């Protein structure tokens, strides 16, 4: 009876330890931020956004210069104009400045929307590749080990090399 009890305990410990080892192997990790930064599509999207931002910056600078030139002209002509004309000119300058502020705000919204449009397919492609590789290797969970995502220890299987191979990078 004692031998059977000892054998039963040994089997339980073996099964428990095996189950614990198997549970550990079902978790992998990947630094998604590093993966996405390594994708060629990301670099192309960033370049596209930078070009658009430079275009907006150039347009805003041109508009600002136009307002400055007009304000300087109106300032120089202020003595020769009536009070009513000067008030209208001040209102015109203020209106132009308000229009520039509105344009700047719209440009920021456009840039944010363009960023979403460009980055969403890239993020989706990375996520799909991570899922495909994780599933093909039998992992139930893949944690994001990018800095600040809550993973305190990442000594398990790192899928970075396999996912990059899947993406062709």
Overview of this structure, please?
With 169 residues, this protein is mainly alpha-helical. The protein has one domain. 77% of the residues lie in helices and 6% in strands. A three-stranded parallel β-sheet has the order 2-1-3, with helices on one face. Helix 3 packs antiparallel against helix 4 (83-136). The longest helix is centred in the middle third of the chain and has 54 residues, at 83-136.
As for the number of domains, it is 1
Order of helices and strands: HEHHHEEH
3D shape: rod-shaped
The span between the termini is: 62 Å
Helix content: over 70%
Q: Which structural class is indicated by helix and strand composition?
A: mainly alpha
């Amino acid at each position: 009876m004692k031998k059977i009890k000892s054998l039963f305990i040994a089997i339980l410990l073996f099964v428990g330890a095996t189950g614990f080892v198997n549970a550990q192997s079902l978790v992998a990790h990947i630094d998604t931020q590093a993966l996405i930064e390594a994708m060629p599509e990301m670099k192309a999207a960033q370049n596209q956004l930078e070009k658009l931002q430079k275009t907006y910056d150039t347009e805003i600078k041109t508009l600002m210069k136009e307002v400055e030139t007009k304000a300087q002209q109106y300032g120089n002509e202020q003595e020769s104009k009536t009070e009513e004309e000067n008030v209208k000119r001040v209102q015109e300058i203020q209106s132009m400045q308000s229009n520039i502020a509105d344009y700047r705000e719209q440009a920021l919204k456009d840039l944010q929307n363009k960023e979403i449009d460009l980055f969403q397919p890239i993020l989706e492609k990375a996520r799909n590749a991570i899922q495909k590789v994780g599933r093909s290797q039998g992992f139930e969970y893949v944690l994001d080990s990018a800095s600040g995502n809550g993973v305190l220890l990442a000594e398990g299987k790192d899928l970075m090399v396999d996912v990059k191979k899947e993406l062709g990078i």
